[in-house]
Specification:
Rossmann fold, 3-stranded antiparallel β-sheet, 9% strand, RNA-binding
Length: 486
RNA sequence: GGUUCCGUCGUCUAGUGGUCUAGGACGUCUGGUUCUCAUCCAGAAAAUCGCGGGUUCGACUCCCGCCGGAAUCACCA
């Protein structure tokens, strides 16, 4: 059984999280069918007014980042090309002419002003606006510059939707839709039907917003003598704060914006795939391969799902840890390029890996690296107030803090080996020597060395910072403390 | 307004007539992991299954009505 799916975006801008799922799901379905599956990418650029030059590249880039691949498309070609609808203009015309000959379509010379009036009149009369009620009595021979309209065959229609189940609609939603526009290009309504047929698509997966137009498509299939493909309506991704469909106007970010924010493509794919789909098990984290293996259309949810960034963030953290734990620090490190703080630019990869190794399990996004790791790469700005206001340290006097620093400097300075274990032993010994609680002594050293709100375990932090830098920083704080007291 | 779709914890969801005094995950809260933040672990709170009728010995699950929400009604896709 062949399974041919497609993603058919229009190049009007970036792909946002509200609509990538209509690329992910068909991809998954095609790949699940293995050798029998094919995923086609088609660019629906028939709207000249909204066309954005760079949009196609942006779309391709987004899909690639997510790890999606296609078997035919604008960049790689294929036997069903071309894959830009504007380049298929003659094809649509051919089929439109066929309908014209059959008397199932007509050239409509009515100007847009008149049409607008029809609409207004009907609205005032509170009757549903249907163009077929205003169908011109005589229509001219078709020639370029005149739109072609379908001649509707309104009747009750029933069909099956793989997600929504058995659906039906009455004649009141079927109308004389435009097939070919004045500019000679087809409308989406017509073009997609011809393309899907010619390209052999077996499943039409798209957002539910097309569901109300389906009766018109049914009529078109009928008139064209085309077997109807499987219709798979995908529920909307909803705004986090309400039940409305998420769109660019609601601030839906582009998928690639998340890449810049340090979201892993694995996490994005995982989150999006599971927003409105699950395999019935309690699994939450899925690799792309698992998704392909387990995905099934009949388990797609039929109600909309709110987009919840918190869960995405959680999932991203899970993926960061998973990559490190399963593939090692090098695999994670490769993904951190571009996310390091400015002052890390002269550090070696080796050093950065050591930093990553002790900090990775507190990352939610890769870009957290920028804020969380600066003190590993250069001496932090000394902030005595931060020390004095710390909830554990404010009980101690400045001279007491000073002598604690002295003892620490001496102890750590005499340390022969600077490895993690020796450091931990030394810190424990210091605890005993000073009689202080870890909360006090460790907070002091940690802050003196990092002046950061948080850091990894103290011995690990000192280990990476190194003996020389650690001692220098402690001494500098000691000096600053003295001058502060004067 | 017409048409169509949807309706289980705050959110994503499991659930296909009895095992549901409704399970999991995120989030929230509490406790633990020698400092912090996070991870991790343990635990808690959180859904009268939109409402009202029916069918049935029994309904979240089937039927009807209602209510609420959404989508769509372009020479845009």
């Amino acid at each position: 059984m062949k399974v041919i799916t497609r993603f058919a975006p229009s190049p009007t801008g970036y792909i946002h999280i509200g609509n990538v799922r209509s690329a992910i799901y068909p991809y998954l379905v095609a790949r699940k069918a293995k050798k029998d599956g094919k995923f086609i990418l088609r660019i629906e650029d028939t709207d000249q007014a909204r066309y954005v030059e760079s949009a196609t590249d942006l779309i391709l880039d987004t899909l690639k980042w997510l790890g999606l691949s296609w078997d035919e498309g604008p960049d790689i070609g294929g036997k069903n090309g071309p894959y830009y609808q504007t380049e298929r203009k003659e094809l649509y015309l051919e089929y439109a002419k066929k309908l014209l000959e059959q008397g199932r379509a007509y050239a409509d010379p009515t100007d847009s002003e008149t049409i607008e009036n029809y609409r207004k009149e009907d609205n005032e009369k509170k009757i549903p606006y249907l163009y077929r009620n205003h169908r011109p009595e005589t229509t001219p021979e078709w020639k370029e510059g005149i739109p072609i309209r379908f001649k509707a065959d309104p009747k009750p229609r029933k069909w099956h939707d793989e997600v929504m189940g058995d659906l039906h609609a009455g004649p009141e939603v079927q109308d004389d839709i435009i097939l070919i526009k004045k500019d000679g290009l087809p409308t989406y309504n017509f073009a997609h039907i011809i393309d899907d047929y010619l390209m052999g698509c077996t499943h039409i997966m798209r957002g539910v917003e097309y569901l109300p137009s389906t009766p018109n498509y049914l009529a078109l299939y009928e008139a064209l003598g085309i077997d109807m493909p499987k219709i798979v309506s995908l529920p909307h991704v909803l705004r986090p704060d309400g039940r409305k469909k998420l769109g660019k106007r609601d601030g839906a970010k582009s998928v690639t914006e998340y890449r810049e924010d340090g979201i892993l493509p694995e996490a994005m794919l995982n989150y999006l795939a599971c927003l409105g789909w699950n395999d019935g098990s309690e699994q939450e984290i899925y690799t792309k391969e698992e998704l392909i293996e387990k995905f099934s259309i009949d388990r797609i949810q039929n109600s909309g799902a709110r987009y919840d960034e918190t869960k995405l963030l959680w999932m991203n953290g899970q993926w960061i840890r998973r990559i490190k734990d399963e593939k090692g620090i090098d695999a994670l490190f490769e993904k951190t390029t571009g996310f390091w703080p400015e002052n890390a630019k002269n550090a070696t990869d080796e050093y950065r890996k050591r930093v990553l190794d002790i900090i990775y399990d507190r990352l939610k996004t890769l870009s957290d690296l920028r804020e969380m790791t600066t003190y590993f790469f250069s001496d932090p700005k000394i902030n005595i107030d931060m020390l004095l206001n710390n909830k554990f340290l404010k009980k101690l006097s400045e001279s007491e803090l000073g002598s604690l620093l002295d003892i620490s400097i001496t102890k750590l300075g005499s340390l022969g080996s600077w490895d993690r274990n020796s450091l931990q032993d030394a810190l424990n010994a210091l605890l005993e020597e000073t009689g202080k609680k870890p909360a006090e002594l460790f907070s002091l050293i940690r802050l003196a060395v990092s002046f950061a709100p948080f850091s990894p375990a103290l011995n690990l932090t000192l280990n990476v910072i190194g003996k020389e830098a650690t001692l220098a920083r402690l001494r500098a704080v000691k000096v600053a403390l003295l001058s502060d007291g004067e």
